[in-house]
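> tool_call: predict_assembly(chains=two)
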Amino acid sequence: MDRQVSSSPAATGLQRGVHLDSLFRGATRVFAFLVFAIVIGILISLIIGAYPAFHKFGFGFFTSTEWNPVTEQFGALVAIFGTLVTSAIALLIAVPVSFGIALFITQLAPGWLKRPIATAVELLAAIPSIIYGIWGLFVFAPLFADHVQPWFTEHLGNWPVLGALFQGPPMGIGMFTASLILAIMVIPFIASVMRDVFDVVPESLTESAYALGSTTWEVVWNVILPYTKAGVVGGIMLGLGRALGETMAVTFVIGNAHNISASLFMPGNTIASTLANEFTEATGTIYPSALIAIGLILFLITFVVLAFAKLLLMRLTAREGTRS
Amino acid sequence: MNLYRRRIFLNYFNLTISVLTTLFGLFWLVWLLWTLLSNGLQYVSLDVFTQMTPPPGSAGGLLNAIVGSAIMTVLGVAIGAPVGVLAATYLSEFGRASRLAPIVRFVNDILLSAPSIIIGVFVFEIMVVNMGHFSGWAGSVALAFIVIPVVVRTTEDMLRLVPDTLREAAAALGAPQWKVIVRVVYRAARAGILTGVMLAIARISGETAPLLFTALNNQFWSTDMNQPMANLPYVIFQFAMSPYDDWHHLAWAGALLITFSILLLNIIARVVLRERKPSL
């Protein structure tokens, strides 16, 4: 008793420290868990919201092209098709361009130019998607309809098989315009990942290749690219994840039509643009539920794509860690 | 000799293409910014900052939208940033050997790139449906969900840059761990953490999709967080899609304001980060 009293100021001070420590630690842990809980919460709330639609339409929901709010018949195929096709075309354009940009920044640009160029390309990602949307609708689409589309339709439109891709009235908006704008929007993401992974290639490897007489291109193609393969694919997946869920820019220029058309110049729809256009106006139980159901499909697709991207990028950093 | 020539040619050819792709990327940036300046600058006037959004066919400004956006952005950051910083603290300081940390880090990166419209749907489900109406609160919460992953990611990166010797020195002086973190680690990483918050602000000030189903819009002056709230991105969306010239002009003015503020925030954040990194 006596001893306790005499040492109490220091002891309680220490005790308070220990107490606050565990309090602080607990608080940070709760918030870390919260991040995890948000993702689980999103998943659960989407599943609950989508249940009536899945219950009513069953597996046919994925294969039906019907989308009729009046008769309450819904199928996700048109929106899924639009989402996948626009993202795939966007990647076809964005991947080579991003590779070229990453190559330029890491191998070609003089030191003083590297950072400004890298920053400028990354600023493309900072521009809000709605700005891409109004630019696409008011500036790009009219130019595209007047000068580019007629040429394509005239010269490529009558090719066998492929020609069907380029037919249709020159409206400027449609699947191709949406894809091109998506490509511009994901270039900064892919390019910056590629740049980062190109930078981790050990100099001894590239220097050895140069010493054997390789040209810059041969070093890039035969040494850097194989070494960073996982990271490059990870970056592309990251870009794909972004493209799949992009909403506002696509909503402006895709034309918002519920049909699947062979031509890239025809209007279409994506999951995100359907949600943006129809969600606030949906009434009843089945209509909103069908919209939430396609939202769930979108979330699951992006989740898988992004998880895959993350795993690939982690594999590269893991190797980086063991090497040094 | 022939092979040698072909290799040289291939090299120059591909490197030229690389330069061209870079110009291709920059071309769009220049075109976009030029479009905004040429279409928007003439309509940016004092009225934009002092008048309310007008009904169709008459002149007005964007005051209620700018204020609404500012309120929701501030609240979104006020909710999201502390959560993000504390979660990142766990990842970098306490959870180094835990099983929760890698899962959270993984999920956070997915949340970072998850479609923002899905976040809108989620907040609609949990808040708007239960409250029965759209509201500024729902908008702020949706924005907070976008802030959290950005802040977690940048803060963790910044905390990891703080050398362990600093932590050990403070601990050796008898400081409890919370004090080590709050007084030493946070202080050392302060500029980096603030930069992350700035990037988060830049990210949410242009977000439209999550606000469509949460804050909706309000044509009138309102600071009531329980009511639908005007916000700049939605107004730009609505005005640009409309057939009225006056609305188009305001949409361009708003687009110009929003883009250049975001670019400015981004550039400042980058400059701060660059100056910070070598010294840590």
